[in-house]
Amino acid sequence: MFYPKGMRSADYLAFYAEHFHTVEVDSTFYGCPSARTVNNWAARTPEGFIFSVKVPQVITHEKVLSDCDADLKEFLDTMSILGPKLGPIVFQFPFFNRSIFRDRHEFLDRLVPFLTKHPEGHRFAIEMRNRGWLDAEFANLLRDHRIALVLQDRSFMPSPGELKFDPITADWTYIRWLGDRKTIEERTTTWDKTVVDRTAELSSWVDFCYQMRKRGVIVFAYANNHYAGHAPATIEQFQKLWQAKGLPELSRPPKMRQESSLFPD
Length: 265
Prior knowledge:
Blueprint (H helix, E strand, L loop, with lengths): L11 H6 L4 E4 L9 H9 L6 E5 L2 H6 L6 H11 L6 E7 L11 H13 L6 E5 L8 H9 L3 E7 L17 E8 L1 H5 L13 H16 L3 E6 L1 H4 L2 H14 L21
Parallel strand pairs: 1-2, 2-3, 3-4, 4-5, 5-6, 6-7
Helix pairs in contact: 8-10
């Protein structure tokens, strides 16, 4: 278990922020949260902590970028409450079959006009599930708009090494360690320990992230429980592999500012 036994769920975020620099918020995918909720996120985390948020599915799955200006504005306005703690904003698209878009070009006919009017001042990322649509042309389009291509470690999507183009399309990149949901759920549904050995994959990711660091690319990386069985353990293993390779030390998570006292401990 990651959270101490008996800890209130209301205290989870503050505890999490003591151990990690950033969190990927999945709940925003299901709907825009209230301003009060977002204010609470900000209050429970230290300066320097970063929230990565998913764009609501009404934009990416239901309306698929059409007639969604008001939805996106509401979401961005609400997320702006986070101030400097707002990090990447991810458009997580589903797999599109031919009943929705006949091909990649039809999707791009929808995407390009949307990109030309997206607001400045945010870090946007796009996650695709159509493997065959990922090519140099698509990457160059994202690069023109300084939008990151989400890199995924999952059963049906290519790793960076399998891509025949440079997948870095901004001065930062976004990595998601997702795994194979169906296969791992046949082995566990408790998510409290590692059940799939990902040493080889994570070692490769360490090498990749180090090369990105040498290029000056900021890396945002997140693990899902379905990747190996326990997301915190995945991050810990990545850190240990990084250290074992003798690479430059990784920074530690920021601390909450404590009230000053005349009588420090």
